[in-house]
TrEMBL record:
Organism lineage: Bacteria, Pseudomonadati, Pseudomonadota, Alphaproteobacteria, Hyphomicrobiales
Organism: Tianweitania populi
Domain of life: Bacteria
UniProtKB keywords: Molybdenum
Single GO biological process annotation from the record: molybdate ion transport
Annotated Mop domain residues: 2-68
Record bears the keyword Ribonucleoprotein: no
Protein name, entry field: Transporter
A Pfam family of this chain: TOBE
Coiled coil: none
Amino acid sequence: MKLSARNQLKGTVVDIVKGATTSHVKIDLGQGNIVTASITNEAVDELGLKAGTPAYAVIKASDVMVGVDLTA
């Protein structure tokens, strides 16, 4: 697999919650870090995802926002 996205985080699928059309896929990156992705149910099936499947969380973002807590 070769992608233009630079943020490719290797992990293991630990949970999939399917909805009517979209699934929430949790990928354990290790050291207590978990990323959740929302993808179509069709994509879950096509990729053969299930708990224990090695997978990559690929993050492609065009914007980064910064926030601060004004109550501090």
